Amino acid sequence: MSNAPITEIDIAAFTADPYPDLARMRAAAPITYVPQLGATLLTRRDDIHVQEKRTDVFSSEQPDGLMTLLMGENMMRKDGVAHLAERRILFPAVSPRTVQEHWKPVFETAANRVLDRLAPRGGCDLVTDYAMPVSAEALKAITGLVRMTPAEMDGASQAMIDGCANYAGNADVTRRCHAATALIDHHIDLMLSDPPPRSALAVQMQGGLAMTSIRANIKLVISGGQNEPRDAIAGTIWALLSHPEQLELIRQGMASYADAFAEYARWVSPIGMSPRRVARRDTVGGVTFEPGDRVFLMFGSAGRDEAHFQAADRFDIRRDTQAAISFGAGPHFCAGAAASRCLIAEIALPLAFRRLKNLRLAGDAPFSGWAFRGPTSVPVAWSL
User: Fold this and answer.
1) Which domains does the chain have, with CATH numbers?
2) pTM of the prediction?
3) Which tens digits make up the pLDDT trace of 219-247?
4) Whole-angstrom distance, CA of residue 382 vs CA of residue 356
5) Helix (H) / strand (E) containing 117
6) Which residue, 342, 359, 374, 360, is CA-closest to 134?
């Protein structure tokens, strides 16, 4: 265990709103051990930005970690040559060029189909009725698991995310995660004989990856490619509707939906944490880490670091977000970043505001989570 100063938290309060505790950590103990999480947290942006790249110390290889045990050893749980080799094989499915030329029309068609069904209703829950199916349809295409329903895709992603954050060892959470991974394996098996061109399944098979790696990486893509875009779509729309003066900036051409998404991802990081295992003894910021220590890189805290963002608790789409590391900063920078930006900023946000006239909030939007964070419901209405 590291010799970091100890910070106690209330798990329920931290899940409901982690930002007050994270601000307290950044100010008083930016590298701190939290007994309730069984990990040492790095909370300042610059520490995370530097240490994430030092994979010889803060390793992604976690053979006994929850993600590896539940989902298999995917490329996110590998470093160095092993990680780079699998990332290169997957790249043709998610490259910026592939996204713009191949996936963007698919995303737009799917989002319009969802809106065709929603528009006559006059109201919905943005999370379940719009953001979820839009995100799921995009992910079905990218993974190649086109026979999954949106509900199956969303449920499998949530079950895996819950499993990977199940540090309390809840047996029901583990059971649901195993059921989700079995469902994904079933759908992989259905597509093995004819994987859709350019899909993650197709390019990995063409690249000669072992089937165990293909399965693990597909699960990784789902766990990182469904809930996070879903929550960012619904969350960014909520943020703009809650700050009408900022939405007006977009309408006047003084800002863009890309600005809104970048600011939302800084402000409410959909991926709030990434775990690491200490591979060798080292000292950072006066804290000595021992081999085997569990470390959490708190991206949700980095986005509100006062050293880089003035009035960091305020949503402001005019802000310079260049210092934000919402998609990571090191060799594990999110491989799906281009697809996420395209789906959210170029398709889901503008289409929602264009097609749902006089879109407005119709109730409270509760948020939850610290490792993964987003709204659990965003009720809205619009004019018919």
Assistant:
1) 11-381 (1.10.630.10)
2) 0.94
3) 999 988 899 999 999 999 999 999 999 99
4) 6
5) helix 104-118
6) 342
